[in-house]
Amino acid sequence: MVRLDKLLANNGFGSRKDVKALIHSGAVSVNGQMPIAVDVHVDDEKDSISVNGVPLVIKKHLYVMMNKQDGYVCSTKDGAHPTVYELLPLEFRRKFSGVEASTVGRLDVDTEGLLIFTTDGDLLHRLTSPKNNVPKVYEVHLRDAVDDEKKLSYAQKLSAGMHIEAEGREEACDCLPAQIEWKTDIECLLTVCEGKYHEVKRLFAALENEVVYLKRIQFNKLVLDQSLQVGECRELTAEELLLLGVNK
To answer: I want to staple 116 with a disulfide (CB 3.0 to 4.6 A). Which of 28, 54, 104, 144 is the partner?
Structure first.
C-alpha cells in the first residue's frame, strides 16, 4: 500500500503540492470514486487509478529516445544555446520517483541523432562507464573525399587505436580501436567504444580530414527510430529496453 499523493508524485504528476491540487480538483479517481483525502492509501497493483479519465500506468523510471537537433546543448542551462531539455514535452520533464531525467552521455551542440534520457541511475552508469566500452555508431560526412587506398589506411589506423591531439582543456590521449564502414567516398559509419571529448572529430583530424556532419544512429544495441523527426522524442518500448539490458 502507498499514499495516493506519493504515488502520483512519483509518477510524474508534479510535487506533493501539485498532486494535492490535482486530487482536490476531482481529476483523480480510485476504483471509479473520487478519493476522500489526498493521503488515502491505495494498492498500486490492485486498485484502478485514473487521472482525467486516463488509467494510470505505474512507472518506476522514465526512458526516452530523442532525435537530437543541431544547435542544442546537452545541459540543463547554457547562455549561448538552447538545451535539449527544452525539446522534451512537459510530461517527460517531471520527476519520477523523485528523480529528473538525465541524458545518457552527451552530443556536441552541432551533432544530431540518438540521445537517451532516463531517471534510471543504474542504466546511466552502465552505459557511460568507461570500463564497459559500450559501442556507439555515428554517421559521418567528411570534407575531403577518400580514395580506396586511403580508405584502407583509415581502417588500419582506426582499428589499431589512434592518438588524438589536445583540444581546449582536453589533453592529448590514445583512443581505443574504432571500426569504420564506408558508404561513399565522403560518408561512413564509425563505431567507437569511448566517450572522449569531440572524439570522432579529433580522430578524423588526426587523419588530416574534417567532419562536416555528425549524427549518432546507435547506442549499444539500440538503433535510432528513423521515423522520429529531428527534435522529436518518445518513450522506449519494452523491446528496446531489453536491448539496453532493462527488463521492466
So the answer is: 104
